[in-house]
Task: structure prediction
Amino acid sequence: MEDISDVEIIAPNFKRRLSGVTSTIIQLIPVQRALGQKVAALGPGLPASLPHIGYRDMFRLWTPPRGQRVRVWHARRNIEMLPAIFMRDVLRMPLKIVFTSASQRKHSGWTKWLISKMDKVIATSGKTANYLTVENTVVMHGIDTDRFSPPTDKAAAKHARRLDPDKNIVGCFGRVRHQKGTDIFVDTMIRLLPTRPNWIAIVAGRATGKHVDFENGLKAKVKAAGLAERILFVGEHTNINQWYQALDLFIAPQRWEGFGLTPLEAMATAVPVIATDVGAFPELLVIDQDETGVIIGRDSVDAMVEATALFMDDGARRQAASNHARAHVLKNFSIEGEAKLLGNIYQSMR
Result:
């Protein structure tokens, strides 16, 4: 537990369920701390090792942190904006509130009102910024490029995951559900793999609750196509970075996405990416002379088949995209870069 007197930035997490927001907080705070930002988390569902404060410390927010006029409250959800507004405007606590929006749809009147009360607003992509009606700063997510990095030996990386090191491997990672386009990936593989015996495919991720039947339907379709040994459902893994290291091609077939980190994780691991035009995906890939992959239209198996076939059948193109991918992420999307930009915003609020 951190001494609230030394905490200058609070990162609340008021939902116990693991989500992209929770993951962002977990990954960012250690990097922010390493950069000298005195940030701590507040709320459930976070690792005990993460610097944090307790709910009782909220009664001590009338006193600013040592050496500062105000404390920064960094909200990422409506439920985290509302109490901060109450503390700042009703209880007159010395707080400044920053809100990060990842939404890519029109906000409700209630959300617009909450956002209008923020001292600073951050958008996670240019597309997200277009849905905001207030002044904002774009700070795109970064990733841990040490954790997500290429293997020293690709064949050994495949063998470690009990995959055939002599095969090329294409993967689709994330929750198994219609929104994520897992069925598009499976249908694409059913059409391509029969004529490409040197390729296998893996789906890594979990189907929750109402999506279990969806996953079972996909497995039945794969079995009926006689490809159960070549389209593998490997489940959810905490060491997902090691699964990326086994890949030769990554596909992000989402129908909708808020931001979407999987293309960055793949590219950081030097894996070319085929992604749909959703979320921040078009802003993440370089598709000019330094190609890291391609962007295609959403919800189209035909487009996915065409793009995937081009990469499957052209090893030189895959290698070139692989080389560009890692360099692109290191330059533009490291988590240290994200933390530094956030630090600049915090500093401007004091």
